[in-house]
Amino acid sequence: MKKCFLVLGVAIFLFTGCSNNGSTKGDANSTDTTNVSTDGAAAITFEEGTYDFGKIKDGEKVSHDFIFENTGEAPLIILNASATCGCTVPEWPKEPIAVGGTAKITVVFDSSGKVGLQDKVVTILANTVPNTTQIHLIGEVTQ
Q: Hey, which bits of 9-100 come out as E strands?
């Protein structure tokens, strides 16, 4: 059963990632979902989309659990979670999340050499519409 969901998830990723019809109309970074049906799709809803860790000293590590629920109509499959740099590491559930089920994505930020204001973005790729969601870890690193 897990292999079936994995194959389905990879197929969705490939079809959505490779569907370029050669059109140059519109902004390349925009996501237009006006004609995409969400009927029967999974949906990810976070308790909080941003966590402010406040002020920390250079070299400290911050860890936070982003709790979410599958508020859609199909099992939620997270294919990937990636951060904006190597100093931020997300860990996400690899198994499908049932409709109405909850889970967490743990994000660890290593502040070594990152003095100043920080906004670390984690992009989640899943079988949702749209297929990406972002969460943020923000704060300030002092010397």
A: 44-46, 50-57, 61-70, 78-83, 88-91
